[in-house]
């Protein structure tokens, strides 16, 4: 029963996390907040972080029973995949993506600034 509750909590977190950043929901929030939408991304990151900490804390309070044990060849593959995915994540986050935009800071820094449109760029 405790694992059913745990999986439900994780599924609810993942659903809420995806729903809050979905195009349909963000379009609604954009219409509601208008210019103040610049602050939504920071709100989204903070809510996601606080809820993730709560879900991880809830998960850690359960018994830590070992479900799967890995032998030598599978353990090596597991570590290669784990460290490889972490390397790709950090590479993409720091070199291929604007971290300030991810956290909503760039949007807040640009809040209230008038963007000039270059008419020659449209040609």
Explain this structure.
This protein folds into two domains: 1-65; 70-112. The protein is mainly alpha-helical. The model has no long low-confidence stretch (mean pLDDT 86). It is built from six helices and no strands. The chain has helices at 2-21, 23-33, 40-60, 72-96, 99-103, 105-109. The relative contact order is 0.11. The chain starts with a helix and ends in a 14-residue tail after the last helix.
List keywords for this structure.
mainly alpha; 6 helices; flat
| Tally of DSSP helical segments | 6
Low-confidence stretches: none
Q: Globular, elongated, flat, extended or rod-shaped: what is the shape?
A: flat
User: Largest sheet, if any?
Assistant: none
Q: Estimate nothing, just give the exact number of structural domains.
A: 2
**What's the β-strand tally?**
0
Helix and strand pattern: HHHHHH
| CA-based gyration radius | 20 Å
Estimate the mean pLDDT confidence.
86
Indicate the proportion of strand residues: under 5%
Helical proportion?
over 70%
Which structural class matches the secondary elements? Answer: mainly alpha
Q: What's the end-to-end separation, in Å?
A: 62 Å
Structural topology:
Layout: H1 2-21, H2 23-33, H3 40-60, H4 72-96, H5 99-103, H6 105-109
Summarize, please.
This protein is mainly α. The protein folds into two domains: 65 residues; 43 residues.
């Amino acid at each position: 029963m405790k694992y059913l509750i745990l999986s439900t909590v994780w599924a609810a977190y993942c659903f809420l996390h995806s729903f809050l950043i979905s195009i349909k929901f963000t379009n609604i929030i954009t219409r509601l907040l208008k210019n103040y939408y610049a602050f939504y991304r920071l709100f989204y990151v903070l809510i996601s972080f606080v809820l993730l900490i709560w879900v991880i804390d809830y998960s850690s309070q359960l018994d830590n029973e070992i479900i799967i044990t890995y032998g030598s060849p599978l353990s090596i593959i597991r570590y290669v995949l784990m460290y490889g995915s972490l390397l790709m994540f950090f590479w993409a986050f720091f070199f291929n993506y604007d971290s300030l935009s991810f956290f909503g800071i760039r949007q807040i820094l640009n809040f209230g600034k008038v963007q000039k449109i270059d008419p020659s760029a449209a040609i």
